[in-house]
Amino acid sequence: MENTNARVEKSQLKSENPELKVIQNNDSALVKKKTSRSVLLGAAFLMATSSIGPGFLTQTTVFTQQLAASFAFVILISLILDVFAQMNVWRIICVSGLRGQEVANKVLPGLGVVLAILIVIGGLAFNIGNVAGAGLGLNAMMGLDPITGAIISAIVAIFIFVVKEAGKAMDKFAQFAGVVMILLMLYVAFKTSPPVGEAIINTVKPEQISWFAIVTLVGGTVGGYITFAGGHRLLDAGVKGIESLPEVTKSSVTGIVATGIMRVALFLAVLGVVTQGLAIDAANPPASVFQLAAGNIGYRIFGVIMWAAAITSVVGAAYTSVSFIRSFHPKIEKYHKWIIIAFIIVSTGTFALVGKPVNILILVGALNALILPIALGTLLVAAHKKSIVGAYKHPLWLTIPGVFVVIIMGILGVKTLIEQLPLLFK
């Protein structure tokens, strides 16, 4: 009886005290705002850390060797293209409330299935490389055998999806790993004392331009599954609708900025080594740069960065690839966490038993170059269909650069595929 009276009194207190209601509503809004901010940052860093994999480290090092300070211009142009690609994709996914494959199926029945197949095959093949990179990272960091290191890394990645709040765990892990990588990279860049003034001049007035380098960087940063990593994460967290566009735009740009800081820091570190006339080991260019910059400690730092870059790419590739088949059957949706775990196990098992299948990776690399123009082109068409986006009007200042990215990446993607296909049958 006393408990009943207490509940009645509590209820009356709430109804008679409007100030208490306001305080409770404000507290609820504050919690929601914090959750939203965490999700937005998580999505941004999921995209950023997915793009910062073993290939990212090697590409940046090799191109800086070739182009020296002129690589600053390549970074600038690729980042501009990245921003427009991501802003288009994230906004359209957010407004439609649909995943990439669902949007594609509404534009052209069956196109979503084709896109999903390309994404899953590409994600699985490249995840073998990511797992290998994680193994090499632990080898450099702690001296572990690369296969043992790969298995340990896979267990860490699997644990993220086993915990009850897998989405939150993934967000926090991506943010932590991203910040660690950026801080360590900035430290190594500082140690090499690069010619910053020369790099700034070449950003706007390069001595040489490599369009191949630009396309490679764009494909590696927003190509394949990476295009959808952040957008799908926001959708799964319930962030959608026209009212969410300002936050979604901010999140997409944050992801590109994080990637850009990492790219610039690594570029400056390599540039400092190159301008000193030090020879970079062609067998493992990024590891060589870190060792030349800071000795044995530098090599250990490389191990930490390589592991963080690879393990976050393993998580991002598995999560995003599986998100492309979740809508195909209710059971896939129900058991998607276990399918993600199976995805990681298959990738790790392939590396441990077979190694990296070079020929398959070559073909998938070429196919991956085509995913961005197909995906972005499809979403741009969807952006102007009322049956998909409702009353939303996609801005012209996003549509025109988006179409430009589709055309350039489409032409060069086809060219790459034609060049690489004969290598598969050698």
From TrEMBL:
GO molecular function, one term: cadmium ion transmembrane transporter activity
Superkingdom, taxonomy of origin: Bacteria
Name of the protein in question: Uncharacterized protein
Natural source organism: Schinkia azotoformans LMG 9581
Recorded GO CC terms: plasma membrane
GO biological process: iron ion transmembrane transport
PANTHER family on file: SOLUTE CARRIER PROTEIN FAMILY 11 MEMBER (PTHR11706), TRANSPORTER PROTEIN (PTHR11706:SF2)
Transmembrane segments: 39-57, 63-85, 106-128, 140-161, 173-190, 210-235, 256-279, 299-325, 337-354, 360-383, 395-418
